[in-house]
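Please decode residue identities from the backbone states below.
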């Protein structure tokens, strides 16, 4: 057989790795790629349909729950679109406003329920804070607004509004509101009760002031005549009786003065003074007023001014009155020892100072159980104290009332060795 290189049937080939080269064209031959299996379009469609059905069921459940919440709440809830028109209302909103859902959906919110001020004058939408803030994407809250019912009656409500967004843009708002009529009625009743109580208290204070004045005037005359009789009396028995009249009259006059002072303070019929004074001078004045009574009981009265560096500005008369009431109590309840009148500089700045005044005694002390009654008018810490020492129980009540008027604080500490009352005052 003769070899013909041009004959296709006589080509000489030799195997190579994973490819072959022809003896004539030397062209590389690559194996065809494996054929891919086409996806099962029917199975994929069924899977997607199941996922959509499951998600739809979830959305229906969520919508049902949301509808239950909207239908069951006692608060009115409504929503509106970006143009300010109702797009949903819950049953409570319809009940409170007196409309049906069909009468509200699609109507402008402001012109329907928020068109007028509480006095009935027009309320333009451009001046409405609820509309403008929600339209700007800002949540809105108000404790008192007025909506208008279908019958033209006002509905006083508290409001909370929240803007709605969709795909990055403002799409409207949701507003909830609560009927606050009962709250307003309760507040009004409370204000009336407070006003009536204040009026009664003012009337009581005025009555006490007038009665105290009417009693004090003849009592001063009685004491004056008793002193005149004492000067003329020569019989020791008569002198003793006149001394008892004088003692009883002074005691009664002190009670009347306390009642008058308290009634004046409570009725606001006194004015505070603004003047410069030295704390040491006030303490010395208090000492001089209790000196005789303390000496009669064998008590020493000591002053401890404590070096307050400069005059204070305030009302020295009221401060002296408060300290005097504390000092009188200190003498009354002490049988031996001393009474100390003290002042201390607590804090200082270029503009003001804080000074603490103290009245310390070596008396019977105060039980912690009576603290809640200690500063009440006509109260004694212990009934046995009233029987033994007497007095109407007004001294500490006057101190506390004066402290409130003078913006001072009152504190005390007490044990079996005695009591220290403190009055802290801030002054220029």
């Amino acid at each position: 057989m003769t070899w013909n290189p041009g004959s296709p049937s006589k080509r000489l080939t030799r195997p190579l790795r994973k490819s072959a080269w022809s003896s004539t064209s030397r062209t590389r031959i690559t194996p065809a790629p494996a054929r891919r299996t086409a996806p099962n379009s029917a199975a994929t469609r069924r899977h997607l349909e199941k996922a959509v059905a499951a998600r739809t069921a979830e959305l229906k459940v969520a919508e049902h729950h949301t509808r239950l919440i909207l239908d069951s709440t006692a608060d009115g809830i409504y929503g509106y679109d970006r143009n300010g028109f109702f797009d949903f209302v819950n049953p409570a909103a319809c009940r409170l406003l007196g409309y049906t859902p069909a009468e509200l959906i699609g109507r402008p919110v402001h012109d329907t329920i928020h068109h007028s001020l509480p006095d009935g004058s027009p309320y333009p939408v451009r001046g409405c804070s609820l509309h403008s803030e929600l339209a700007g994407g800002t949540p809105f809250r108000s404790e008192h607004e007025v909506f208008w019912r279908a019958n033209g009656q006002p509905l006083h409500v508290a409001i909370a509004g929240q803007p709605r967004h969709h795909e990055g843009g403002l799409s409207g708002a949701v507003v909830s509101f609560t009927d606050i009529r009962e709250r307003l009625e309760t507040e009004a009743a409370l204000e009336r009760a407070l006003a009536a109580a204040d009026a009664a208290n003012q009337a009581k204070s005025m009555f006490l002031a007038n009665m105290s004045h009417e009693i004090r005037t003849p009592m001063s005359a009685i004491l004056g005549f008793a002193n005149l009789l004492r000067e003329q009396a020569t019989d020791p028995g008569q002198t003793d009786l006149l001394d008892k009249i004088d003692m009883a009259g002074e005691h009664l006059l002190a009670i009347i003065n306390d009642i008058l002072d308290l009634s004046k303070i409570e009725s606001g019929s006194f004015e505070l003074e603004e003047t410069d004074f030295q704390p040491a001078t006030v303490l010395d004045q208090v000492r001089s007023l209790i000196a005789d009574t303390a000496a009669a009981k064998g008590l020493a009265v000591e002053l401890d001014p404590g070096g307050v560096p400069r005059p204070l500005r305030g009302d020295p008369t009221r401060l002296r009155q408060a300290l005097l009431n504390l000092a009188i109590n200190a003498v009354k309840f002490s049988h031996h020892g001393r009474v100390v009148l003290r002042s201390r500089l607590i804090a200082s700045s270029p503009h003001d100072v804080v000074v603490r005044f103290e009245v310390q005694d070596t008396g019977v002390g105060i039980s912690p159980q009576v603290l809640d009654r200690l500063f009440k008018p006509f109260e004694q810490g212990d009934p046995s104290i009233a029987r033994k020492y007497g007095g109407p129980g007004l001294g500490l009540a006057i101190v506390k009332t004066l402290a409130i008027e003078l913006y001072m604080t009152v504190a005390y500490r007490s044990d079996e060795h005695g009591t220290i009352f403190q009055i802290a005052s801030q002054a220029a």
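Observation: The radius of gyration is 47 Å.
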